[in-house]
Inverse folding.
């Protein structure tokens, strides 16, 4: 009973969220000063007025906004996400192609920041007040306040331009045929963008883990375990990690939204052909179908991240899991 | 009792002072002394109950013996265990083995670890845990429970089980009966009595004097961060004439079963203690001798920190 209610509630929240996201995105993109037609044909195009009118007519740009939105929503519900103006391909295809690039990037950055941040947080908490702790804290706070694109540019100018260790952009060597691109090429191109994205995600999880572990190390059960002969390493390994792992995982899943936000900027800096740079393109060319498609897609993505965090809590925390079984 | 006194105490606390450095008003650091020259001894086979009002710092004594005071604590005085100095290394080596600590409540169990693993800890074994559970009538199903699933009585028995994992000689129990049914509380204390009868020394810290009367051999009266009197429980039961310190007398008088007469005034705050005898401001027998340093004196079969005591 409560489970089916939970699922129904979740689905309802998801649907209202998607409706709100699509309406809001539509209002924003249609009220932006960018003219999709000009963006499409260029400012000094020699296209005749008749041809322009025809395209405007075909795209339905002059229709009243409500009519445009309901037309889009109706088709969307039927599974037709429309055609991207900027890429001249169905929106679904663009998202699928681009996301396959981004998902690798996000996964690497997310895992990297999660694991490293968790370990750094534990280390800082155990050495609370030491020079290491202070250094980690300052590093995290600096990163937390640094904008993604700025960090991306710094990374780019140091490792790609000055040192020349990594390519300055794209997902594969320029001019190489798609079938010739090797896995190493791909990895080599992934390093800098995922480093940028990962480093930015690290500070949150580090600071969170540190704070939480310090709190836990102050609690009564740690005191009792100590009174029973456990040393610091045992306290951290047996009780500390057990008690911070779950909240830390939750924070990391909840960070999906920032990950998606970060990717839009990081991909633009590194000209990485992922969903983030597709979003930028869509925004700059007034590409309504693609923009709405990505907006809805990203909302689902972020929602799923939070949902996973909630479900994990229920599955892993005995207080929730067995409490439910009891009651 | 008498022949026990001739032996070396299991735990011998001499002139223990504990202070915490803390910030008051901005960045001014101040040392706040919460225990003052506290002395007591626990002999094998006896329960010494330290009795005092809630929140007066009795737990600090337990934490000092276990060596689990927070980092900003400073300790003066000496603690001896079985005749040898109980310093930091020895505390670390002995706690959880010969010296067991029994905390107040469930909050001292890891909320995310099953009860059996917690009772076993780092030194116990599954067999010992099963034996302990059998001894304290804890069912098999309790092993797989998490602390939040335990009832108050079960939690007490689980916490006591942790103490019998190793051959503990000294048990330090910090308020082991708060918020418990009288029945459950009595059962808990009987368990302590049993441990003492097996030869353990038990330092029982409590605010519940009635319970202490029932199981303790001797009672130490804790007042304003120190112990003002230690006497056999029979003296307490005999009434105020048998006691030595004016505070203990007044304390006994204040009990509902006696004349239920409250003591005037309040216990002094650790930051603003009077000079000399800490009870002097509230004492009817106060004289100019009370302004000096107050030492623990042996009188009859007990100890007292009062120049007038007879």
């Amino acid at each position: 009973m409560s489970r089916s209610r939970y699922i129904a509630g979740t689905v309802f929240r998801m649907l209202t969220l998607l409706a709100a996201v699509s309406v809001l995105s539509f209002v924003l993109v249609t009220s932006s000063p960018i003219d999709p037609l000009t963006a499409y044909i260029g400012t000094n195009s020699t296209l005749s007025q008749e041809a322009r009118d025809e395209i405007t007519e075909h795209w339905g740009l002059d229709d009243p906004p409500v009519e445009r939105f309901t037309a889009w929503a109706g088709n969307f519900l039927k599974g037709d996400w429309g055609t991207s103006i900027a890429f001249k391909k169905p929106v679904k295809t663009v998202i699928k192609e681009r996301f396959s690039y981004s998902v690798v990037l996000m996964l690497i950055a997310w895992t990297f920041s999660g694991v490293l941040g968790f370990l750094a947080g534990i280390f800082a908490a155990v050495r609370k007040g030491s020079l290491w702790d202070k250094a980690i804290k300052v590093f995290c706070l600096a990163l937390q306040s640094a904008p993604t694109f700025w960090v991306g540019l710094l990374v780019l100018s140091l490792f790609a331009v000055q040192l020349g260790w990594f390519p300055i952009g794209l997902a594969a060597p320029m001019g190489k045929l798609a079938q010739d691109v090797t896995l190493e090429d791909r990895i080599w191109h992934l390093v800098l963008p995922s480093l940028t994205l990962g480093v930015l995600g690290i500070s949150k999880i580090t600071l969170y883990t540190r704070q939480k572990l310090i709190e836990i190390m102050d609690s009564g059960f740690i005191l009792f375990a100590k009174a029973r002969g456990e040393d610091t390493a045992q306290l951290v390994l047996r009780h500390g990690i057990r008690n911070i792992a779950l909240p830390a995982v939750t924070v990391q899943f909840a960070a999906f939204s920032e990950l998606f936000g970060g990717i839009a900027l990081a991909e633009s800096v590194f000209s990485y052909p992922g969903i983030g740079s597709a979003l930028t393109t869509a925004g700059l060319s007034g590409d309504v179908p693609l923009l709405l498609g990505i907006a809805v897609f990203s909302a689902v993505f972020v929602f799923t991240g939070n949902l996973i965090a909630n479900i994990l809590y229920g599955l892993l925390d005995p207080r929730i899991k067995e409490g439910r079984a009891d009651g | 009792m008498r022949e026990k006194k001739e032996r070396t105490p299991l735990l011998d606390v001499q002139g223990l002072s504990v202070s915490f450095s803390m910030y008051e008003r901005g960045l001014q650091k101040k040392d706040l002394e919460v225990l003052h020259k506290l002395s007591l001894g626990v002999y094998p086979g006896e329960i010494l109950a330290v009795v005092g009002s809630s929140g007066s710092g009795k737990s600090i004594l337990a934490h000092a013996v276990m060596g689990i005071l927070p980092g900003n604590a400073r300790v003066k005085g000496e603690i001896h265990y079985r005749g040898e100095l109980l310093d930091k290394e020895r505390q670390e080596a002995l706690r959880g083995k010969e010296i067991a600590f029994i905390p107040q409540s469930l909050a001292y169990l890891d909320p995310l670890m099953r009860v059996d693993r917690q009772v076993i800890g780092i030194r116990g074994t599954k067999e010992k845990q099963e034996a302990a559970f059998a001894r304290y009538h804890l069912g098999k199903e309790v092993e797989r429970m998490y602390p939040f699933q335990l009832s108050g009585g079960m939690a007490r028995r689980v916490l006591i089980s942790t103490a019998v994992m190793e051959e503990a000689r000294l048990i330090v129990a910090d308020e082991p009966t708060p918020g418990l049914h009288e029945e459950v509380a009595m059962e808990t204390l009987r368990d302590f009595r049993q441990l003492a009868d097996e030869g353990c020394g038990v330092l029982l810290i409590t605010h519940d004097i009635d319970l202490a009367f029932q199981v303790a051999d001797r009672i130490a009266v804790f007042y304003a961060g120190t112990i003002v009197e230690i006497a056999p429980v029979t003296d307490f039961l005999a009434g105020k004439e048998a006691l030595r310190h004016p505070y203990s007398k007044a304390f006994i008088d204040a009990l509902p079963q006696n004349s239920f007469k409250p003591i005037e005034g309040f216990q002094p705050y650790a930051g603003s203690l009077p000079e000399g005898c800490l009870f002097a401001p509230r004492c009817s027998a106060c004289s100019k001798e009370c302004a000096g340093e107050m030492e623990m004196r042996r009188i009859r079969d007990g100890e007292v920190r009062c120049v007038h005591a007879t």
